[in-house]
Specification:
6-stranded mixed beta sheet
């Protein structure tokens, strides 16, 4: 379980997140939505220790993010809005292996893990390609494969469809849904696009750094969306 207690986050002198309290259970599919500048990505970056609380705490399966960032990042993967921000090597299969190399995994075990991840995402045709010639959707899948190879318990997706055309948007959201339903991976989806949350079970709405709604998606209404500055 992911637990956030009394979280405040300051950047310079500005209070970005204000008294956030939250629990995300194993196997969840939760969307964090809000207008641009609402604080949703800032909150998401606390989930795998990319940011640290100014006040309060974030724990992943009782591991405090302030005390053990390495263990936290093994449990919580983070897929950035722009996949180029996390692609390191020029060849797809080498990039997917990057995190496993950092863990010191043996070469044969690493090859097996990379191949099974590539097969699981149905991207065998990309394995030997240079990442620089890939489409935006293919880069997104490569970045996701690098995270999946690490066998995370949760994955945070930060606005994953922003740079994609409609076909690739549908593809990545279908993949995310499959990871949750079949692989039982907890999904935290950050977005300001209401079309992206159709598979989410629960929704958190953030407005001006505060949570104004945290419940089942079916209970979300136009009044809340309007308050958050989102189009219904």
């Amino acid at each position: 379980m992911i637990q956030i207690k009394n979280l405040d986050f300051k950047y310079e002198d500005e209070l970005i997140l204000k008294n956030i309290n939250l629990e995300l259970k194993d196997g969840c599919y939760t969307a964090i939505i809000g207008a641009n500048g609402s604080g949703k990505t800032t909150l998401a970056k606390h989930l795998n220790a990319l940011l640290m609380p100014t006040k309060g705490s974030v724990t992943i399966d009782e591991i405090d993010t302030k005390k053990d960032q390495i263990s936290v990042r093994k449990k919580v993967g983070f897929v950035f809005q722009n996949p180029e921000d996390q692609l390191v090597y020029s060849i797809v299969e080498e990039d997917i292996a990057f995190g496993l190399e950092n863990l010191g995994m043996r070469t044969e075990e690493m090859k097996t893990k990379v191949n099974s991840t590539i097969k699981g995402l149905d991207i065998e045709y990309l394995a030997k390609k240079n990442v620089n010639i890939l489409s935006a959707g293919q880069k997104q899948l490569t970045a996701l494969a690098g995270i999946l190879a690490m066998s995370p318990k949760y994955i945070v997706f930060d606005e994953p469809t922003t740079l994609l055309d409609n076909k690739n948007k549908k593809n990545i959201m279908d993949v995310v849904n499959t990871l949750n339903k079949e692989n039982k991976i907890g999904i935290i989806l950050v977005t300001n696009l209401l079309n992206d949350i159709k598979y989410a079970k629960n929704v958190i709405v953030i407005c001006n750094g505060r949570i104004i709604f945290n419940d089942k998606k079916s209970k979300l209404n136009n009044k809340i969306l309007k308050k958050a500055g989102l189009d219904a």
